Amino acid sequence: MINKCLIISAVCLSITIILCMIRAVKGPSNLDRLVAINVINTKIIVLIAIVSFVLGETYFIDVVLVYALISFIASVIIADYIQKTGGKES
Amino acid sequence: MKRIMKSILMFMVFWIILTEKINIEIGIVGIILCSFVYVFNRQDLFPDNNFFFNKILYTLLYSGILLKEIIVANWDVAKIVLSPHMDISPQTISFDTKLQSPFYRMILANSITLTPGTLTVDLKRKHMIVHCLKKEYAEQVICSKFEKILLKIEAIEHDQ
Amino acid sequence: MKLLFITLFLIGGVFFFTVGTIGILRLPDLLTRAHSAAKCDTLGAMLCLMALIIYKGFSFTSLKLLFVILFIWITNPTATHLIAKTNLMENKKDKKLME
Asked: Is the CB of B129 less than 8 angstroms away from the CB of C88?
């Protein structure tokens, strides 16, 4: 029963990730895309945690910790890059 | 000496949570790694002497109020987003904080960003620029509960 | 009892994630979209991970999940703040170019 609840919520999360991708593809400026990617990262963190509980493998939680670190550093570096180059060209 | 012990103890707790086991080998490896981290980490983790251990009561009170504010603000913003015609009036305001130390200013700015509806855009010395989703939120930001509690904590620290 | 709490928390988390996504799609400009993104980051992630913590009970795994919540709550405002600041700088540059 609990497994079914977890699977249903995982599917719902995947659908919201696809909806977020619309904004990430279409967004007028690069910063809009960055906001959308940031949200997608948070969703993926939760998704990996849920999937690890569905499969019963708790070592995926380490993956979650590392993913949280990497996604934060990635968004900081991309924001810095846009600040330096302007982000209008390309 | 006390500071070194405290930092290494904190790193050790984190290490044990990561490894999920308590062994002699894991303990020895952890102590070596934690001392390496302490040597190579130049910045002070605790700006004042003991933040978490002395004022644990105020920390708990602050996190409780933060949680309550986040839930209320989330509900408000969800109602705005789901209503068919979004009545938003975005505006940026700027004001000065009374807080002295940079650490508490950082906590204030992060709390303001964490509550939906308000967003810290810039923080220079005392000057803060805050973007609000609606006009009503602007008055709440200027005389917020967070700042009062942080001012109290700072006053206690000043007395010591 | 446990099942009820887990289901409630999961439904709350997924609801806030969905509302955040709708906000990102509907709201008109960048800073207001960032408001909507903050909603996903705070309550959505917290409620979902809380459900998992209740499911697991008191163990090392739930401590790790608590660390993940703490980490998200510290780092995500920082990233949002950087994005907003970058937007402000770009606007200033544009104004200078116009003059």
From this structure: yes
